[in-house]
């Protein structure tokens, strides 16, 4: 099994900062954050994330200092990549940009350096298709906020070598993440396919007057959403039984949303300029206080979850 000692995170944006923190939480790793310029405020996002975690008991001051000591910022490509064991891109979500990036990295890195992409939706097979060694390319899709959500989807491209999948799964586990093994490179990988199957049905119900937006959200928050942290659909189907699962699907599937185009309501809102939290109106109207409470509430919930996992 490949030994990973140095991880390089490319792109010091929202995900790049979070991922540098995640990898640096492992005392056996050195982390380089590849950035275009060494700005004076470069440490702020990581320090802020850690300070908020410390305030709610999800990290200690000693852990913060240890994490920061393992991270360095680099601008030079040779310095960043020549002794790297694992490089992950947190670059903008543009196919040609990512393809060019990995061709550049290959000029400097060793033959057995693993190349990973944190792409949200694009095909890892296509991203690594211009590389000399595409078999060392793998998807490693973190969820935002990357330092708080445990899931990482490790995605096998059409040519990813098994040793690369295994080493990436092990690395994520060693950094406290919950990696899942995605056997095929399909749009949405695993978790976004599940998420958007639910969003499609949610939008369909509002569009067809079955329930209003807040009611749909309540149905998730106070019903099945309470089960999901401890029981996913596969285990739940076994629990209720295969016969009941079959009977329910035999009756209901023909009534569920199966549109292959985005909801008409989304297009109407776009045309009206109702962009959600950006404008204070989307499916629902939001005051500034409500929007702050919503995003703060999610962050606090996730930090408290991280604190509970630590105990
Ligand atoms: N934001 C999310 O919710 C989320 C979640 C999962 C995955 N992702 C994926 O992670 C990747 C990064 O997303 P993000 O939200 O962190 O974006 P971001 O815009 O915050 O960060 C991108 C970073 O890349 C840097 N960059 C751009 N061109 C560069 C260059 N030529 N050289 C060096 N740095 C350069 C930018 O300065 C910026 O810091 C994308 O592929 C995105 O799809 C995002």
Map the helices and strands.
Blueprint: E1 6-10, H1 14-24, E2 30-34, H2 44-55, H3 61-69, E3 71-74, H4 77-81, E4 86-89, H5 95-108, E5 114-117, H6 124-127, E6 137-142, E7 151-155, H7 162-174, E8 178-182, H8 191-207, H9 213-221, H10 224-227, H11 233-240, H12 242-252, H13 264-272, H14 288-310
Parallel strand pairs: 1-2, 1-4, 2-3, 4-5, 5-6, 7-8
Antiparallel strand pairs: 6-7
Helix pairs in contact: 11-12
This protein binds nicotinamide-adenine-dinucleotide.
Word description of this protein:
This protein has an eight-stranded mixed sheet, with helices on both faces. The chain is globular. It is built from 14 helices and eight strands. Helix content is 48%, strand content 12%. Helix 11 crosses helix 12 (242-252). Strand 7 (151-155), helix 7 (162-174) and strand 8 form a beta-alpha-beta unit. The protein has two domains: 6-182, Rossmann fold (3-Layer(aba) Sandwich), CATH 3.40.50; 191-310, Orthogonal Bundle (N-(1-d-carboxylethyl)-l-norvaline Dehydrogenase, domain 2), CATH 1.10.1040.10. It has 311 residues and is α/β, with parallel strands linked by helices. The structure holds nicotinamide-adenine-dinucleotide. The site of nicotinamide-adenine-dinucleotide has 16 residues, from helix 1.
Could you name the key traits of this structure?
N-(1-d-carboxylethyl)-l-norvaline Dehydrogenase, domain 2; 2 domains; globular; Rossmann fold; binds nicotinamide-adenine-dinucleotide; eight-stranded mixed β-sheet; alpha/beta
Secondary structure tally, helices: 14
Give the helices and strands as they follow along the chain. EHEHHEHEHEHEEHEHHHHHHH
In CATH terms, what is the fold-level topology of the largest domain? Rossmann fold
Report the structural category. alpha/beta
